[in-house]
Design brief:
Elements lengths: L10 H29 L1
Length: about 40
């Protein structure tokens, strides 16, 4: 994957990346919650 300078990618790609990051955070939180719940 080639590294492009800031602002070189289309807005759609930036929004997609932001959505993927948000989803990853949600999955991390849910995974941590399930981990702690299973320990209880």
């Amino acid at each position: 994957m080639s590294h492009r300078p800031e602002g070189a990618e289309p807005v759609g790609a930036s929004l997609l990346a932001k959505n993927l990051n948000d989803n990853a955070c949600l999955l991390d939180q849910r995974g941590a919650f399930e981990f702690f719940a299973s320990k209880g």
